[in-house]
Amino acid sequence: MMGIRVSELAKEIEMSNAELLSALEDLGVPATGVASIIDMDTAQAIREMFGKGVEGRKTVEIAAGATVKDLATAMGVPPSDVQKRLMKMGVLAAINQRLSASAAQKLAGVYGFNVKVKLEHKPVAPVNAPKHKSPGGGMQPRPPVVTIMGHVDHGKTTLLDAIRHTNVVEGEFGGITQHIGAYQVEVDHDGEKRKITFLDTPGHAAFTAMRARGASVTDIAILVVAADDGIMPQTVEAIDHARAAEVPIIVAINKIDKPDSNPDRIKTQLTEYNIVPRDYGGETECVLISAKKKQGMEDLLEHILFQADLMELKADPHAKPAGVIVEAKQEVGRGPVATVLMNQGTLRVGDNVVCGLAYGKVRAMMNDRGERLNKATPAMPVEIIGLSLVPKAGDKLEEVKDERTARQIAEQRQQKQRLNRLAASHRVTLEDIYRRIHEGEAKDLNLIVKADVQGSVEAVVGQLQQLPQNEVKLNVIHSGVGTISENDITLASASDAIVLGFNVRSDQPAQNAAEREKIDVRTYQVIYELTESVERAMKGMLEPIYEEIQMGKAEVRQTFRTPKGVIIAGCLVTEGKVTRNAEVRVNRGKETVFTGKIESLKHLKDDVREMAQGFECGIVVADFTDVQVGDILETFEMKQLERKLE
Ligand code: GDP
Ligand code: MG
User: Fold this and answer.
1) Mean pLDDT of 524-535
2) Cα 194 to ligand 1 centre (Å)
3) Other CB atoms within 10 A of residue 177 CB
């Protein structure tokens, strides 16, 4: 496979993964994450644009959060010129507009400079022009939303508890706290009070389940690894889930109080999974902690805030209120109770909302300490009551203008869901991916590979990588040893992936989930059968080539108009046969006046599937009302030809 991983290129040109990904996005290069492969040409272009040490290039040094003017001055060009360039890139910026590091790199690259951004351990003030301006508002920094992931017993729950205890506004912790699925802590950071939101649903299952429902709420993942145990299967799973979601990872090496703990061994192990600790020259922060002894908590929180600053997390508190359900349940005496995390806008008591299939008026709002609130701002988790039903985790909550509208929308959704159920909706089957390709989306085939032993995992992945992939790219987003589990299915569902098993089967929960989510799960006992079927799947993903197969002709003898205005052509089949749903060309003299489909075919009063030569029939051509006597209806079929991979 010719190309280079985003993470490798980033390292090479000394950019952070996040910066490179954002630069790639700005340039319109499809890259889904640090593990994405970009082709050599693009990589070269990026090197030239951002790379240090490009021959003959001078380096200008600017501070983080430098303005357009600062950069122009550093390069010795008129600020107005820089503005014009920005405009060409689609950014309308004032002279004193601050630039993100990636924007500055890109701009300087245009002028043939390398940029060195002096990062300060300090919040970076507003960057880039806000995308959404709202009256009296605009984007404002918001707290990061953090999920804790890791192998069972490595200390996730203990860490969540320890963090809660560090809350500075809660010095006398120990009062009544409620479990509401998420909580916020406030910490002192460089003399400033800063908030961090933690999703109190440890594990990637919950995290990925939400993503499968289209809700990405997590900004940063904390990967907990017990220093006395090392990287375990669920650790790898967590890494892959976070990667698939493009969420940056901070590693918390836990249990360092234990005598047999060996943090360096963990760091070395991490590099095998492409997570390179900072002190090994990489860019992943590894923080040593003891959740039990509450050691290293401040350090961990610092790194979270620092990462959050790099990500420039923002939301508009004045925009239309919208959030995501983190957790919901039915409670005796209170009815449906839902924990909401606001994405944007400010939700207030009394607001009318719709939320998945539920609707209602927010009757009351509580924070994680059980205190009543009147409003909730972005990234603030609150519990609300007043909904008509219990929504699902991952459902989106939106404010609407009045109760009637809320009810209408919810009822429409319920109706639609009933219909969908009947129509056996499918989600991540090959056909679906195939259809999406037709709608112009990327040609990636995401795979999850499970096998009986590590050796066969490697063999399968190795064989897959040898398939030609110039047109369709294979991404193995997760691989591992063991039975196909429900987690694999959830990840597949969130990432539109297909699950391949080699010498393993799905357990019952996985089978149920696959059934429910319509995930393609295929198991094999012979490697080449597996690779062959993937190859076939890839062929299915190529743009199909069609061949037209002639079927028959019918001459229009009469036309009728039904009371509803449908035009029926009374025809005689003169050649071959005419079938319902066939493609049809309406020929008038030498000209084709319409091409479409046969909508209905009748013999006398009966609907028929096909009519052979010599018979008379009534034909309705879909979406065409100008059939005339003497027209020849020529029917044909489009046959798809098999394509070879290139
Ligand atoms: P989870 O399954 O990842 O949520 O793990 P838990 O938080 O339930 O922790 C599993 C076990 O490890 C518990 O017995 C904890 O007391 C213990 N534990 C967690 N963190 C530490 C730590 O930093 N040091 C030590 N010695 N034990 C810990
Ligand atoms: Mg736990």
Assistant:
1) 86
2) 27
3) 14
